[in-house]
Design goal:
The structure holds 2 protein chains of 2 kinds. By secondary structure, chain A is mostly beta strands. Chain A is 0% helix and 51% strand. Chain A is built from no helices and 11 strands. In chain A, strands 2, 4, 5, 6, 9, 10 and 11 form a 7-stranded mixed beta sheet that branches. A 4-stranded antiparallel beta sheet of chain A has the order 1-3-8-7, with no helix packed on it. Helix content of chain B is 0%, strand content 45%. In chain B, a hairpin with a 6-residue loop joins strand 4 and strand 5. Chain B starts with a strand and ends with a strand. The mean pLDDT of chain B is 95. The chains are: A mainly beta, B mainly beta.
């Protein structure tokens, strides 16, 4: 069965970096794009962008350029989200979501990133 | 870019039918998908395409679309359907971009 398992919660200080992982299983990793979605506390879902798991080419939504980096390690079927120069407003749950045929069909359980001094 | 607009909150009596709507220009070109999110949990896909349900989603969930409006209908709402519901679709830029609606909080009375 398809599973996306994300890394655990993180508590970081402002200015630090964080790397969130999303390990896929139950399907061929390179056959489906991977998307990243942010949910700030008490807020809705916000699409951050996606990464082509065949080519490794990332695309970032407006507002997620510069400090946000999507990457892959296809040898272990894992996608990564790295955020640098963390700010308090980056505090959120970050989800990875597999894209298939015009839908986001499987989601990771989410990773809470808390930025606080 | 594109926006999808949802009512912030909707309520329904137990066992009754409720429709949650999503409006946006991109819906003239693309089908919406619908996601259910319960507190502290990840979103779950409930409707995609014209009106398709993933395996395990009850048949009381259905989808429809007309013009710039997509709808999620729950026929015979159950207590466990109380959740936030989000629509999403490709945006109208022609690029590989997604956009989400702001979400609708469904209360089952």
């Amino acid at each position: 069965q398809v599973q996306l398992v994300q890394s655990g919660s993180e508590l970081k200080k402002p200015g630090a970096s964080v790397k969130v992982s999303c390990k896929a299983s139950g399907y061929t990793f390179t056959s489906y794009a991977m998307n990243w979605v942010r949910q700030a506390p008490g807020q809705g879902l916000e699409w951050m962008g996606w990464i082509n798991t065949n080519t490794g080419n990332p695309t970032y939504a407006q507002g997620f350029t510069g400090r946000f980096v999507f990457s892959l390690d296809t040898s272990v079927s894992t996608a990564y989200l790295q955020i640098s120069s963390l700010k308090a407003e980056d505090t959120a749950v970050y989800y990875c979501a597999r894209e298939a045929n015009w839908m986001l069909d499987y989601w990771g359980q989410g990773t809470l990133v808390t930025v606080s001094s | 870019s594109s926006e999808l607009t949802q009512d912030p909150a909707v309520s329904v009596a137990l066992g009754q039918t409720v429709r949650i709507t999503c409006q946006g220009d991109s819906l003239r070109s693309y089908y919406a998908s619908w996601y259910q999110q319960k507190p502290g949990q990840a979103p779950v896909l409930v409707i995609y395409g014209k009106n398709n349900r993933p395996s395990g989603i009850p048949d009381r969930f259905s989808g429809s679309s007309s013009g710039n409006t997509a709808s999620l209908t729950i026929t015979g709402a159950q207590a466990e359907d109380e959740a936030d519901y989000y629509c999403n679709s490709r945006d109208s830029s022609g690029n590989h971009n997604w956009v989400f609606g702001g979400g609708t909080k469904l209360t089952v009375l």
